[in-house]
């Protein structure tokens, strides 16, 4: 898949594309509906299909001190967009220049002139331009003047509520993996490069792979049944702690998966950990023996839940 920087002119073979325009963090059911419509429209017209996203997220620009909230990295989104049938991913680097771009400049200067778009598909609540001066009505009006078609896709409703990234974040912060998985159509997953840690897990028979959390949303701290996608693509099962490890000093925020059927050196390699079931909150134990006893119970429960699907 081609990755395009929105600050550059689109390559000739991708001009005339239909662009799915949004942030698409998480790429949940609602996002999939927008992108699916863009891909269908592009295929019907014999045009390329491009999915746009913003990185960093606009919230990070306007609220730099906001707690981490991302559901996907840029690389994860690229893979998800490709699987949905897109030909390219368009990345808008959200900075002061983009924030100061008016709705008219965004449509005529960026979408039409620089990117050569023929059509745009958005969600009904999409806003853009300086001070959020643009919406789907403005997009349609400005697009019509420039030969750009515009289509808005309505929200997806599940269990009586609109599917949204905020709803998924709330589910994850409550430890509700089932709801998050249903709305995302896959488990929430954290991807990162395995770091060296203090290697305490080795001493108690549970060697873990330590992953930094970066800009990801912090799910509810605790123990989870997980799967891990290893270098080369192999998927293994395990149990993971995410949090600050209250039994040990000093507190350190980490994701620490222990994989049941894996041995080998993962340091410096990228893996992805998917959250399937919340088992229990973090707890402080009076002794290592008590901790090991509980970890054995956690692993037994994780194996049972993962085997049940």
Describe this structure in words.
With 309 residues, the protein is of the alpha/beta class. 33% of the residues lie in helices and 23% in strands. It is built from ten helices and 13 strands. The chain has helices at 29-45, 58-62, 74-83, 96-99, 103-114, 136-146, 165-173, 177-184, 200-203, 288-308, and strands spanning 2-5, 18-20, 49-54, 88-92, 119-123, 149-153, 157-158, 161-162, 189-193, 222-229, 235-243, 254-259, 270-280. The strands form three sheets. It has a six-stranded parallel β-sheet with strand order 1-4-3-2-5-6. It has a five-stranded antiparallel β-sheet with strand order 9-13-10-11-12. The longest helix has 21 residues, at 288-308. It is elongated, with a radius of gyration of 22 Å. The two termini are 32 Å apart.
Index terms:
10 helices, six-stranded parallel sheet, 33% helix, 309 residues, single chain
Order of helices and strands: EEHEHHEHHEHEEEHHEHEEEEH
How far apart lie the N and C ends? 32 Å
β-strand amount: 15-25%
Q: What is the structural class?
A: alpha/beta
For the biggest sheet, the summary is: 6 strands, parallel
Strand tally? 13
How would you write the strand order of the largest sheet? 1-4-3-2-5-6
Task: Categorize the overall geometry.
Answer: elongated
- Uncertain regions: pLDDT < 50 for 5+ in a row? none
Count up the helices: 10
Mean pLDDT value? 93
Percent helix range = 25-40%
CA-based gyration radius: 22 Å
Task: Provide a compact summary of the structure.
This protein is of the alpha/beta class and 309 residues long. Helices cover 33% and strands 23% of the residues.
